Amino acid sequence: MFSFLPTNSHERIIILDFGSQYTQLIARRVREAGVYCEILPFNTPTDRIKSHQPRGLILSGGPSSVYDDQAPRSEKDLISIVGCPVLGICYGLQLMAHEMGGEVKPSSNRGYGYGRLRVVDGTTRLFGGLPAEIDVWLSHGDRVTKLPTGFHMTAETDEGVNAFENPEREIYGVQFHPEVAHTPLGAQILRNFLFEICKCRGDWSPAAAIDEQVARIRETVGENDRVICGISGGVDSSVAAALVHRAIGDRQTCLFINNGLLREGEFETALSLLKQSVHLNIVGVDASETFLKALAGVVDPEQKRKIIGATFIDVFDAEANKIGDVKFLVQGTLYPDVIESVSVRGPSVTLKSHHNVGGLPETMNLKLIEPLRELFKDEVRIIGRELGVPDEILNRHPFPGPGLAVRVLGDITEERLRILRAADRIFDEELRRADLYGAVWQALAVLLPVATVGVMGDERTYERVIAIRAVTSVDGMTADWARLPHDLLARVSSRIVSEVKGVNRVVYDISTKPPSTIEWE
């Protein structure tokens, strides 16, 4: 598998994953600061970590308790041997305290949510330039009750120690999560670690790495092999295709598969736009009947994903046989896809199989190229603009690979798809009319598997419910529900009920991520 990784010419930070769902967010914040970072499993051998010549090491949070026998631990004496500054976050802080002679015990009250942090050491570089008190986000069930020898407390909350350090050994720890948006000054804390403590220069950006990746794609594919790219008209697959096209030109054939689960008019309009604007070698394949037949009667969302993934591969294999000499399949897999799909780097809890990675069979005949696998959505948009991908594509809201299959809750039928497509179109139209499409990260409609009583004219109805959802986010790892104007919601509801036959009720989803996900399935 080929993934997007810079050469060793860039300085880098290594993040060890101890199972936190926020691990990717740590990476995102480090990259925002212009420093490349790579996530490795918590048990990565010390020699391998040192081979990357890291400027710093970050130990992530995690769901375990350090005093449990099965708790994840790194190699013995890693921190002393690795030879660079270390920052432990939440579980990472507790692990350092536990292994260096301190004490960690269960908290009487689980720390979850906002906390007020008081900096008690005015000389610490980690909190340099920050106020004496700041808001932080807490998520822990244990706390440090005794510091290791040689360490001193630098910040506290009401429950006690919340940050400590040994500046002579360049070891730092915080109990809160500086990587999340709920810690408003967290980015500055991480920047202090990167630039004041690790002495990073900040020499990396997604756009500057394009030439490196083009060279690696050429090396991976060779001079004669052909490549197929599964493209959907969305941001991820379009940018992945443009990057591979920069490397090997028309030896890449992009297959835009109509799986029968696209939005209204999406297949025709997106196919035309990609041909005209990006100049890709692209072929449209209408396989909608094949997909819908395979999905008939299936209601379990995980089974839907697996069926769709397997069917996609069958179609790819069939089209590859027509083209000949195809050895590789390009996919627009991103970092959040991976962390929400399968624990490939550490013990992170699997949330769901994802649209890009959940349904691929082990016996697939094509080798995968995933040039965006280590990137976040906004980084992909930066690359896309450098590659000439038009804003009409780059500014689109994310759309899941299984498409409307995971927005029709329950059995998928042509009639239910018709209802959902119409509702989705109305929501999209009204957002654009209100000039709010670009103000939300993602907006969608969901057809619920329930019917409710209604009144239309002089008759009672018993028809379907549409849930609409709009969220704000930076990278999709966390999201808040969008506070859309009430008159906009009223127009959307009124239009859906009056224009979409079979719907008599519209509800608005006001859940955040976490604990909810953005999609319903």
Structural class: alpha/beta
**Uncertain runs:** 341-361
Percent range of helical residues: 25-40%
User: What separation lies between the terminal Cα atoms?
Assistant: 28 Å
Q: What's the CATH first level of the largest domain?
A: Alpha Beta
Please give the radius of gyration in angstroms.
Answer: 25 Å
How many domains comprise the coordinates? 3
| Strand-residue proportion | 25-35%
Summarize the structure in words.
With 521 residues, the protein is α/β, with parallel strands linked by helices. The protein folds into three domains: 10-197, 3-Layer(aba) Sandwich (Rossmann fold); 207-394, Rossmann fold, CATH 3.40.50; 407-508, GMP Synthetase, Chain A, domain 3, CATH 3.30.300.10. 31% of the residues lie in helices and 26% in strands. It has 15 helices and 19 strands. A nine-stranded mixed beta sheet has the order 3-2-4-5-10-9-8-6-7, sandwiched between helices. Strands 1-15-14-11-12-13 form a six-stranded parallel beta sheet, with helices on both faces. Strands 16, 17, 18 and 19 form a four-stranded mixed beta sheet that branches. β12 (252-258), α8 (266-277) and β13 form a beta-alpha-beta unit. The chain starts with a strand and ends in a 13-residue tail after the last strand.
